[in-house]
Amino acid sequence: MIEVSNLTQRYRKVLAVDDLSFRAEPGRVTGFLGPNGAGKTTTLRALVGLLHQTSGSATVLGRRFVDLDEPARKVGAILEANAFHPGRSGRNHLRTIASASGIPDSRVDEVLSLVDLTVPASRRSKTYSLGMKQRLSLAGALLGDPQVLVLDEPANGLDPQGIRWLRDLLRSLAAEGRTVLVSSHVLTEMAQLADDVVIVAKGRLITQAPMSDVLAGAGRGTRVRSPERDRLATALAAAGMTARPVGDDGLAVDAETASIGELAAVQGIVLHELAADEGSLEDVFLELTEGASTPS
Amino acid sequence: MRLLSSELVKLWTIRTPKVLLLVSMVISGIAAAAFVGSGSVDRGETDPALSLGQGAGFGTLFAVVIGILIVTNEYRHGTVMTTFLAEPRRVNVLVAKLVAAAIAGAVIAIAALVTTAAVALPWLSARGEGLELDGQVLEAIGRVLLVFVLTAVVGAAVGAIVQSQVGALVGYFIWIFVVESLISVLSGLLLTEIGEPDPISKFLPGSALSGIVGGEGSEYVLDGGWAALLALGYAIGLSVLGAISMTRRDP
Prior knowledge:
The complex is a heterodimer.
Chain A: E1 2-11, E2 14-24, E3 29-33, H1 40-47, E4 55-60, E5 63-64, E6 75-78, H2 90-100, H3 106-114, H4 130-142, E7 148-152, H5 160-175, E8 179-184, H6 187-193, E9 196-201, E10 204-210, H7 211-216, E11 221-225, H8 229-238, E12 243-246, E13 250-253, H9 257-267, E14 273-277, H10 281-289
Helix pairs in contact in A: 2-3, 3-4
Chain B: H1 2-12, H2 16-38, H3 48-57, H4 60-77, H5 79-86, H6 90-126, H7 135-162, H8 165-191, H9 205-214, H10 224-248
């Protein structure tokens, strides 16, 4: 369980995190979303005790990270994708972490197979692809078999198969009762991964909700195309449905597909397309963070 | 203990420390050959044990570099965050690194001594001058060990203060080769007659360290014992500054 309350972090004049509060529950994957510069990385660093001048509180399993006994056995974290000495092999990198936390070397081989990183033991990490580096980072986070995972952009640089693999792995880790907090700006990926979402922009909380609620809030409407768009628009307006033009011949209508289809049939209007618009997380996200995230 | 073993794994799983160790052995061998070959030992101008100790002392440059790398490699490559995840109390991390630096310094010292002995002893005995393992020789060995250990610790402390790898390396060498020389020249010009040793420069960190192996009888550096105490003081002082810097500045 992760609990952040009234967290504030200021870097000289910049307010990176502004009075942020949210929770991540055990047994669930919590997506931590926000545009670049929203304060996600700062928040995650504060959570694992890497920032020393922070106000408010960030606790893991009810305690501040720095107060935990055997922190590596309780919390695993990825904070930077490429935090390895380039001349050290991946296996030796994991050995340095294992020995610092009193974890036996045998666990190193276990996590390497857990993340499907099968490379010659002597191969230096600078020759790894970005995807392999992400797997190695994840292996490092899993070394202590922790109850809580804090992962900053773990999907960055993974190919589609890699992303699917990561999703399955994180879901199964959460299913074992672990708390998984994952930051990302790859929003579509989150739709299939996260149970809950925390959306931040400019260091402030925009919303925290179950993913299903957020998706449900994505204006569910109908997309329709017709060569007689203007006539259709007039007919829809007369029937009390609001429509706005999309592209050359399309309309986005705030109504069910059935009522639009029936109306078109009655009026004898030709339709080229009639489809329910599921509404993407991306739309919701842009809508929610609009205004809060002016480019700087 | 865990942190220390992690630091030793970190050292031994990259190439640079091994290369530095090898190069320092080569340099020590050349220095030993130069001392024996120059004939100053035969003429009785210098005490052979001390001269050989000074020869081995050239390798301290490598000890300081390893000390600096032990800390700054982690900042350079971002692994310091992983290290702080395993041990959030950064002072403990620094202590482990200082001890690892001391061990690395001792290893380089022993390698330098063995190389020096391997080059110098057969040569000396071929000329009929044995070097017995008497108190004087043991003292010289002790001094070499001490200067390497303290130099490596100073390197790690400087690394913790500066954190940037390039900054720490450049800063250290500019201090030793430029700043200390300037101070010595200036204080010599302003405070003493020409040709007299100046009163300040022998108390500077670099001179204190080199005084450990070469102090006796010279007016330009402190005597060995005092030099060692002063150098130890510098090592402790810099380590405290390093601990403050590491705690205050987030990676």
